[in-house]
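Appendix C: a fully annotated inverse folding record. The material below is reproduced so that readers can follow the format used throughout the book. The structure is listed first as tokens, followed by the designed sequence.
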């Protein structure tokens, strides 16, 4: 999924993001605003994952949308 599609579907995806990564606050999810790199960074920070692991997890999530 390309960047424009993710940004366009962000309002729909926000609930799914919160369900998958429950430690993210509503404000943090709003700030992501469909920015894949920002989401990867939050997942990495909140869950203590490596950059590569966070990137893979977000990539898999986006592909499933």
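Designed amino acids, in order:
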């Amino acid at each position: 999924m390309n960047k424009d599609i993710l940004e366009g579907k962000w309002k729909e995806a926000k609930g799914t993001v919160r369900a998958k990564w429950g430690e993210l606050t509503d404000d943090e999810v709003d700030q992501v605003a469909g920015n894949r790199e920002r989401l990867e960074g939050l997942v990495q920070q909140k869950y203590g994952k490596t950059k590569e692991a966070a990137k893979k997890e977000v990539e898999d999530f986006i592909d499933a949308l």
